[in-house]
Amino acid sequence: ALPISTDQLEAVKKIVDLTLENYNIDSARIYGTGLSQGSKGIMRLSINYPQLFAAQLNIAGCDVYTDEEVAVIADKPIWHLIAVDDSTNPSSNVRKLMDQLEQEKA
Fold first, then answer.
1. Would strands 31-35 and 55-59 be described as parallel, antiparallel, or unpaired?
2. Is residue 94 packed enough to be buried (19+ CB in 10 Å), middle (13-18) or exposed (0-12)?
3. Which residues touch 70 (CB under 8 Å, ≥6 apart)?
4. Spatial CA neighbour of 70 closest among 38, 33, 95
5. What is the pLDDT of residues 59-104, one digit of tens each?
6. Whole-angstrom Cα distance, residue 39 to residue 63?
7. Do residues 106 and 75 touch, judged by C-beta distance below 8 A?
8. Is the model's pLDDT at 1 over the cut of 60?
9. E strand spans, the chain
10. Is the pTM of this model over 0.90?
């Protein structure tokens, strides 16, 4: 899969912002979820905008993040599902993320 571009992430963020501006939505109750590449996008949005999602569910997709990136989302409820034998998205990336979150006392 191709990496998610900053332009793509900013387009999604703009759609969320426009939706919040134009509809009666509780901004404290926005939840992020994504599958595969979408999961990676949700993680990146969450890291770039830590207050955007109240919680998130990531399925079958995880990149490797720096400790500094993980620190900004350590207080967020995160559920991450991935198959141990997923040949496209290595479960070792999720294990590393979970270790990083635990180090941050998440």
1. parallel
2. buried
3. 47, 97, 100, 101, 104
4. 95
5. 998 888 999 999 999 999 999 999 988 888 888 989 999 999 999 8
6. 9
7. yes
8. no
9. 31-35, 55-59, 78-81
10. no
